[in-house]
Amino acid sequence: MRAIRAGALFLIIGVGPVASETADGPLSAIDWLSQSVAAPAGGDTGGLAMAINEPPVAGQGSALPDPVLTTSLDAPSPDAVGLIAPAVSGLPADLWGAGLTRDIAMRLTASHAGDLPALRQLFLTILLAEAKAPVDAGGRGELLQVRIDKLLALGALEQAAALIQAAGAGTPDLFRRAFDVALLTGAEDRACVQMAETPDLAPTLPARIFCLARSGDWDTAALTLHTSEALGQVSADQASLLAGFLDPGLFDGAPPPHAPTPVTPLDWKIYEAIGEPLPTESLPIAFSYADLSPRAGWKAQIEAAERLTRAGTIPPNVILGLYTERDPAASGGVWDRVDAFQRFEAALASGDTDRIAQTLPMVWARMQEAELEVPFAVLFGKTLSQVPLEGEAAAIAYQVGLLSPSRDLVVRQHPSADQTDVFLAGLAAGDLTSLVAPNSLGRAIAEAFKTPVPSTEAQSFLDAARPGEALLVAIDNIARGLEGDLRGVTEGLSFLRLQGLEDVARRTALELMLLERRG
Question: pLDDT tens, 98-152?
């Protein structure tokens, strides 16, 4: 089995939960998706599975045999669609090898890449990579939908939308996901136009009423609501909410219906339209995108951007722009971070070394509290490496530099002051020969760089020509190590290095040493 090549990777991400799997259940399931379109009773589905998140009927009382799925042998498989070519991702074109769709899907949905940005970035790259479809894919696109669902669960909306667009398939299941992304990113009018222009998509009543109103056809929207209510096709609460959407004056002096559980993006958008926006902090991370809109307050925008930046689904420049948009409105919490960030950036812009030295410890402490150290390092690591600092400020600048893409430059410019600094410099260079680890975590890391041996499970997948699943095992090994099992750190880093992912291994090791994420 050829090694997984090292290469450029994508955005860093945070890993959130996806619905649980059973042996006979759906490959993936997101309970908060809007019921925006109805699955057709039959007909062409564009080669994709029509309802991947609905349990199969056969074997549950049905007398009919399982349907026979057919596909053209020379047709491209939707499961092979990706946004990052192998030459860029560093992952092999045969990433899934001899693996089976359900096994891969279960491991993807259950995987938790932990709190290290380097591993989050690697995991996102796996989801977005171009790779040959699993051997049993059959052109159904099941793994594609699992990947999209995982991206949605992680809050990677723009990446999920791009993957759906790349698939180029207007199936009901994929449209549902594209529709919800549009709702949460402020592009709902475009989604409604697409729904209207695609006769194969049968909109559900709430979605149809919503889109009719968005297009200005209020009379037809009201008639549709009244008819569906009379026929008992919508619940009383749903009818009341939609009526309030069409006529916001109905709720004057009276509370709207209680929000459903779970809240869908369509629910959220309608509550916003009637002037009763639902807070996003208690909703899945994908909903945070909605608060990036200028319609949200500045504080809500900052908190949403912090959540998404911490997850790695938006670039650090977004939080940079929001932190510096205006003067902080108060003190405490997010405002302390804004104030510390603004003071540091002003000092850096002035070029005054004393001011930089005074403001750096405070902003670094605030970034540590919010777990935004790596985004901060991406923004300022290189610049800080060129400032002649001393004492505490110099030590912080060194850490920031090691967490940044400029770590090689930082190591060359920074004289090693103690055993820990020497060890960190060795990690950045990938050479720990003759170096002494400063603690037990360092010893676990050093073992992977001196005598790398992957876990038995990862090696067994590799031996079975299933490198993608082996890589997911290695990621989980390291994440387990964050919880105290240092053997997992050694085994996971060993696998990354043996498979050519050297840069990922070094960044992961440095983050293990420098970020307080254990436990």
Answer: 999 999 999 999 987 778 999 999 999 999 999 999 999 998 899 999 999 999 9
Average pLDDT over residues 210-217: 94
Cα 62 to Cα 51, 65, 66, 82, 118: the distances in Å are 18, 8, 9, 37, 47
Q: 389 by DSSP, 3-state: which?
A: coil
Q: What is the pTM of this model?
A: 0.86
Q: Which residue has the tokens 């560093």?
A: 90
215 has pLDDT over 90:
yes
Taking a C-beta distance cutoff of 8 angstroms, is the pair 387, 353 a contact? Answer: yes
**Range 211-242 burial, b when 16+ CB lie within 10 A, else e:** bbbbeeeeeebbebbeebbeeeebeeebbbbb
Question: Per-residue pLDDT tens for 224-233?
Answer: 999 999 999 8
Closest CA to 153 of 292, 272, 313: 313
Residue keyed to tokens 């991406």: 378
Dihedral sign from CA coordinates of 472, 473, 478, 482? positive
Q: Which two tokens stand for residue 133?
A: 């479809």
Q: How far apart are CA 216 and CA 491, in angstroms?
A: 59
| Nearest alpha carbon to residue 118 among 492, 424, 455 | 492
Report residue 247 CA to chain centroid gap. 37
Question: Whole-angstrom Cα distance, residue 395 to residue 362?
Answer: 13
Q: Is the pLDDT of residue 485 over 70?
A: yes
Contact 155, 313 (CB under 8 A): yes
Q: What is the identity of the amino acid at 361?
A: P
Which amino acid makes up residue 183? Answer: L
Give the burial class of 64: count Cβ atoms within 10 A of its Cβ; 0-12 exposed, 13-18 middle, 19 or more buried.
exposed
> CB atoms < 10 A from the CB of 382, how many?
17
In the chain, what is the greatest distance between 2 CA atoms, to the nearest angstrom? Answer: 80
SS3 letters for 306-320?
HHHHHHCCCCHHHHH
SS3 at position 203: strand
The predicted pLDDT at position 482 comes to 82
